[in-house]
Specification:
Layout: H1 2-16, E1 38-50, E2 56-58, E3 61-70, E4 76-85, E5 90-93, H2 95-102, E6 103-109, E7 120-132, E8 135-145, E9 151-163
Parallel strand pairs: 1-9
Antiparallel strand pairs: 1-2, 1-3, 3-4, 4-6, 5-7, 7-8, 8-9
Length: 167
């Protein structure tokens, strides 16, 4: 009887100490399309950073960049940039981080339009996971709003981002 109890205790301890192999970040594999009449880029850069204008420069981070340019509306552009640690294999950027400025984003810039309204990112979520040495799957939902924090638009991107050399 003591042998059974000892075996039971040993098995319970061994099973209870098993490492949790579930991924930290759960991602949607349903990919979004580039908006109609637009050309999109989904890139990331290692050993990079970005300036306030969204320009990618040399640095100590991994920078992700999305850009959508609409050819039928004189090059109207929607874009966002964000950075993560080089050591990360996955990440989750929260709504509070987006609202506090951890993400650089422009919802709509248009060189020839007569619209001069800039909306800023006020929330959302961005998750990502490395899929191989040169690709990351990124699920991004960025809510844009007014200075009074009223939402006016949401940009949703679920795509594979490809490693690029720094410009």
């Amino acid at each position: 009887m003591k042998a059974r109890a000892t075996i039971f205790i040993v098995l319970a301890v061994l099973l209870g100490c098993r490492k949790d192999n579930t991924p930290k970040v759960t991602l949607s594999t349903t990919l979004t399309n580039c908006p109609a009449n637009s050309t999109c880029t989904y890139s990331y850069y290692n050993n990079a950073d970005f300036a306030n204008a969204g320009t990618v420069i040399h640095g100590n981070y991994r920078v992700f960049s999305y850009q959508s340019v609409n050819a039928s509306v004189c090059g109207a552009t929607s874009q966002f940039y964000f950075k993560t640690a080089l050591s990360d294999d996955d990440f989750d950027i929260t709504s509070n981080q987006i609202a506090s400025g951890d993400v650089f984003a422009n919802d709509f810039t248009c060189p020839c339009c007569e619209i001069d309204v800039l909306f800023k990112p006020i929330g959302g979520e961005i998750k990502g996971k490395r899929t191989d040495d040169t690709h990351w799957l990124v699920n991004a939902s960025i809510v844009f709003g007014t200075s009074a924090m009223n939402p006016v638009d949401t940009v949703v991107v679920n795509q594979y981002f490809t490693k690029e050399p720094l410009p």
